[in-house]
């Protein structure tokens, strides 16, 4: 499965903010679109790349940080 540039942007923005809702505000889209993009990226790699906690936001695990760095270079 190919990962779209949009999904890469949504993924990296959410991790940069540490919040799906803040990323949605910056990108002017629904938070559910950010969540779906994160799900798409994780499905493409068949890995869990993030840790989502409702009250604490979103953080990347070690694999997620590596993927985010590669996406940042591509974008």
Bin the strand percentage. 5-15%
Q: How many β-strands, per DSSP?
A: 2
What's the arrangement of strands in the largest beta sheet? 1-2
Rounded Rg:
11 Å
Number of helices: 4
Shape: globular
Note the run of SSEs as H and E.
HHHEEH
Low-pLDDT stretches: none
What would the average pLDDT be, to the nearest integer?
94
Structural class: mainly alpha
Q: Main sheet?
A: 2 strands, antiparallel
The termini sit apart by 19 Å
Question: Helical amount among residues, as a percent range?
Answer: 55-70%
Quaternary organization:
single chain
Question: In short, what is this structure?
Answer:
The chain has 75 residues and is mostly helical.
What does this structure look like?
With 75 residues, the chain is mostly helical. Helix content is 65%, strand content 11%. It is built from four helices and two strands; from the N terminus they run αααββα. The protein has helices spanning 5-17, 20-27, 31-45, 62-74; strands spanning 50-53, 57-60. The chain has a two-stranded antiparallel ribbon with strand order 1-2. A hairpin with a 3-residue loop joins strand 1 (50-53) and strand 2. Helix 1 crosses helix 2 (20-27). The longest helix is centred in the middle third of the chain and has 15 residues, at 31-45. The radius of gyration is 11 Å and the shape is globular. It starts with a helix and ends with a helix. The mean pLDDT is 94.
